[in-house]
Amino acid sequence: MTHPAVKPICSRQGEYAILCDLGIPTASTADLTVQQKVWGMSACLSAREDVLEVVPGMNNLLVIFRSIQHDFDACQALIHNAWETAPASASQGSQIAVPVVYGGPDGEDLELVARHAGLSPRDYIDLHARATYVVYALGSQPGFAYLGGLDPRLAVPRRDVPRPRVEAGSVIVGGNQAAILSRTTPSGWHIIGKTALNCFDHTQERPALLTPGDTVRFDIQEVLP
After folding, report:
1. What is the dihedral of CA 109, 223, 169, 62, to 10 degrees?
2. 3-class DSSP state for residue 1?
3. What is the pTM assigned to this prediction?
4. Which of 11, 134, 173, 174 could form a disulfide with 158 if both were Cys (CB 3.0 to 4.6 A apart)?
């Protein structure tokens, strides 16, 4: 079954690739039924001999063909057909527990986001840790997982001015999503805590700790003032 509000839009990404965008703003909308459809499309298209790789994103997917694609209309029809016919994939991944130290120097935005939600910092933490999150997609940086499942009461707009440096392991919220920074980078998300888990280790056979379909729970390890 397709989502009635979604109208896939295809665009060329060079000579070999086509991007299918479902037209849903990533920062504002996280819909598990749509993402399961993306996973189903990815499995369907990946099985084709003329497809080299499919990269599922959040509300989109990139199809990379083995040869130059001269007929864009045919490619677009192929992808639209996958949207219409591919079964949704309720991927059952691993269950990952993420220990978090909330607040303190490594959670400097906790009071701000709690105030925005009309909650005490402790109530904000409890709601954040109570939810079960689903890894929708990896992107932005190696091992960075976009998580759906944030309680709507905890949603907060991203910062107007991104910080130039946020440490890897920072537990962050932005829009209606939660995440963990896998690398030290600039970020406009709000920092509410930190985990000691390493979300990306290139020396491992499976470098990324999280993969699409995994479920995540945040465990309260400590709360700092």
Report:
1. -70
2. coil
3. 0.86
4. 174
